Amino acid sequence: MLIQLAIIGLLVALAPLATVWLSGDADKYRKLVWTALFLTFDLIMFGAFTRLTDSGLGCPDWPGCYGHGNPLSAHEFIAAAQTALPSGPVTVFKAWVEMLHRYLAMSVGVLIIVLVAMAWMKRLQADRAAGPAARRYRPLYPMLLLLLVCVQGAFGAWTVTMKLQPIIVTTHLLLAMCLLAAMTWLGAAQGTHLPVADGRSGRALATPALIVALLLALQIALGGWVSTNYAVLACNDFPLCQGNIVPQMDFGHGFSLWRHLGKTADGDSLPFAALTAIHWTHRTFAYLVIACVAWLAHRALKDSGLRKTAVALLLAIALQFCTGMATVVFKWPLPIAVLHNGGAALLLLLLVMLNYKVRYAPRPPAGQPAAQ
């Protein structure tokens, strides 16, 4: 089974690898970095689809499906589980969704292994040429990415074996976001950027940009906690929650981290007030994050080197607000819920890019201001 899964992962990775090698881009390493980043973003979106369609236990074992490497071979077992409980966690559709998610994750792992090999080869070539390129190819960074993928895979396994325990599933999501952020940083390091001015619109944004990125990371964690606890409709109206500004809430049980899905730490059924506390906290903290991202983007608009990223941030935060509101108003439609998860990933990507630019983008020559 493991050999079959490895072969499937390699086959899935062949298409993006072929795209890189057959492209007209002379810098294959940079092309591969951005291709892996694109697939990591896709993996997060498909992971959201997997979670939101309740497909996380579509195959109740790991890494295969009922001991097989694909749902076709395990069809007899899947069909039996679906017949016994048609609305249960195991159906033919859910099994395919879960396994496709695993195949895509394995392909991202293959791409990162290729990145590690390419980084070592490029670094050795640069060392022999004694050129400045040696500073660009640092194998340690792709190796850390590979380590992160392995940890992410372990949490993927625990997500299944621990039956969707909320803290495990949320950590699995956060590790995926960490991988996206790290891939974005590596991608930014491979590109060329417009000069960023010193002063208020340049280096002075370094600390605020980091703080806003950390606030977004906390908001993503809260969003993951909402999703993994199925608290999306605990507040089923907007902008109020159950008709109140501050509804009845149970923060103690809601934010008790180590517990089973739908249960308190003592094993009792999780009260609805706990779900309300989870949703209300995520929604309320969102207002702060929106304000901070909008302020940061407004400041960045003043610098020509940051303007495109700032405009993209403003558009992304507007999209995220609209999809979050629509998810509640329209009672959690799947496409909008998936788009809301993707919007969070896009915001993180843009904030990481902005953080890179305010620290490492070139500065104009002394005495020469950047173009405005």
Give a verbal description of the structure:
This protein is mostly helical and 372 residues long. The mean pLDDT is 91. The N and C termini lie far apart (59 Å). It has helices spanning 2-22, 28-52, 75-84, 92-129, 140-161, 166-190, 206-228, 251-254, 272-300, 307-329, 334-360. It is built from eleven helices and no strands. Helix 1 (2-22) packs across helix 4 (92-129), helix 2 (28-52) runs antiparallel to helix 4 and helix 4 runs antiparallel to helix 5 (140-161). The protein is flat and about 60 Å long.
SSE diagram, text form:
Elements (H helix, E strand, L loop, with lengths): L1 H21 L5 H25 L22 H10 L7 H38 L10 H22 L4 H25 L15 H23 L22 H4 L17 H29 L6 H23 L4 H27 L12
Distance between the termini: 59 Å
**In which range does the helix fraction lie?**
55-70%
Question: What number is the mean pLDDT?
Answer: 91
Question: What is the radius of gyration computed over CA atoms, rounded to a whole number of angstroms?
Answer: 22 Å
Number of DSSP helical runs: 11
Q: Can you describe this structure in just a few lines?
A:
By secondary structure, the chain is an all-alpha fold. It has helices at 2-22, 28-52, 75-84, 92-129, 140-161, 166-190, 206-228, 251-254, 272-300, 307-329, 334-360.
